[in-house]
Design a protein that fits this description.
The protein has about 425 residues and is α+β, with helices and mostly antiparallel strands. The chain has two domains: about 150 residues, no CATH class; about 170 residues, Glucose Permease (Domain IIA) (Distorted Sandwich). The chain contains seven helices and 18 strands. One of its GO terms (molecular function) is metalloendopeptidase activity.
């Protein structure tokens, strides 16, 4: 059954699918049916899928493993928060793009364009908008004249700055107000791309989705729109340690998920299929290769690699509960072992997921897939195609292995 695309307040198709992919009643029945299957197969009280969604409790579960963040600074009397290289404004009750622009002496078109909104858009109270050019700090001469009238000289200067693509120079005698210029690190900005959600962005920057929502004034479901500029909350410390579950054959080092701010390592990680063929020279390097103990085919060689490609992100309990294979969009995704399709669902990011049940209480999870060609209850054979790698800016397949209710490192289970 097809579903008409949702539309945002601009009338354009919404870039981010809503959380509900079916009418509430249907969604509830589907979820209960899915929970019954997973609960029966795994014999557990809680299983969370990629994207941080707890299938049993229906809530995101990954925030506790994210970096703690500072609260958003308080704005000045106009609702402006000033940073060294940019400014943002907090919307008031019943605010609009045009009203905010007029209040701050900005062009409504420029403000709308900077935030991916139409000029006529209504704003939610607390919503954050990026200012296209700098306005005078609160209490500084040359900003807003008494009575809220716009200072024409300042407005003209700002227009020139916008035309030349540079930040406006401060007026003589202008000093930053402590009330509107926060101390500490300047938050990073992120422009929402098609298909992104608050949860996927939170994972990228290793902060909680709720913190992103609080900083940017998102609604209760943390909806974002294409072109929206988000401030990434400033971290106040490292992510807390998460107790790891020791899987069979664990202990092999795995690479840390790459930072969004740093390029991926230039050296190529060994593919699963080629890990055992690593040369003696490579084994002598400072970073040990990913290896698995040779404990017999019943454990370490039980599963086939689900997609052609190398591991680009390794297993890291509390951060990456599986492995990610770099692969081309549309590449075949195959069953790692014979079994039955236990569930086909989506996580909070609307990423499609397939769960297969295998003998011995083993479950395998395939996330970020498309073109699914199996149905719930379908019996599959080892190596049978079940879907394709989903389209993305950097396509990959997320693969997990669960032994009962516990996620384990997939690498020891994969064929050599």
């Amino acid at each position: 059954m097809t579903r008409a695309p949702s539309r945002d307040r601009s009338g354009r198709p919404d870039a981010v699918l809503p959380r509900a992919v079916a009418p509430p009643a249907t969604r509830r029945v589907s979820r209960l049916a899915l929970l019954a299957v997973i609960g029966t197969l795994a014999g557990c009280s809680s299983i969370s899928l990629p994207g941080g969604f707890d299938l049993i409790n229906g809530e995101p579960v990954t925030d506790s493993a994210r970096q703690p963040t500072a609260p958003r600074p308080e704005p000045d009397a106009r609702g402006v928060i000033s940073y060294p290289t940019y400014q943002v404004a907090v919307a008031r009750e019943d605010d609009t793009v045009a009203a905010m622009a007029g209040r701050l002496g900005l062009g409504a078109g420029a403000l709308a364009e900077a935030n991916g909104l139409p000029e006529t858009a209504s704003l939610r109270e607390g919503e954050l908008l990026l200012l296209p050019s700098r306005v005078a700090d609160a209490g500084s001469p040359g900003g807003l004249a008494s009575g809220g009238e716009v200072d024409v000289a300042t407005l003209a200067g700002s227009a020139l700055d916008r035309a030349e693509g540079r930040a406006p120079a401060a007026a003589p005698g202008t000093a930053s107000s402590q009330s509107s210029t926060p101390t500490g690190a300047e938050p990073r900005r992120h422009t929402v791309q098609r298909g992104e959600t608050a949860y996927s962005i939170a994972r990228r920057y290793d902060v909680s989705a709720r913190a992103i929502g609080d900083w940017n004034g998102l609604n209760s479901t943390l909806d974002v729109r294409e072109g929206q500029v988000l401030l990434i909350p400033v971290a106040t410390g490292p992510a807390p340690d998460v107790a790891a579950v020791t899987p069979p054959g664990s202990g092999s080092p795995t690479p840390e998920p790459p930072s969004a701010a740093a390029p991926q390592p230039s050296e190529n990680l060994p593919s699963v299929a080629g890990a055992a063929a690593a040369s003696g020279t490579a084994a002598a390097t400072a970073t040990p290769p990913v290896t698995a103990p040779q404990t017999g085919a019943s454990d370490t060689a039980r599963l086939a690699q689900p997609v052609s490609g190398r591991i680009i992100r390794g297993y890291s309990p509390g951060r990456n509960e599986g492995v990610d294979f770099g692969a081309e969009a549309g590449a075949p995704v195959r069953a790692a072992e014979a079994g039955t399709v236990a569930a086909i669902t989506r996580d909070t990011d609307q990423i499609q997921i397939i769960v297969l049940s295998h003998a011995g209480g083993l479950l395998t999870v395939y996330a970020n897939v498309g073109d699914i060609i199996v149905e719930k209850g379908t019996s599959v054979s080892r190596g049978q195609r079940i879907a394709s790698v989903g389209a993305a800016e950097e396509p990959f397949l997320h693969f997990e292995v669960l032994q009962g209710a516990k996620r384990v490192d997939p690498v020891p289970y994969l064929s050599r």
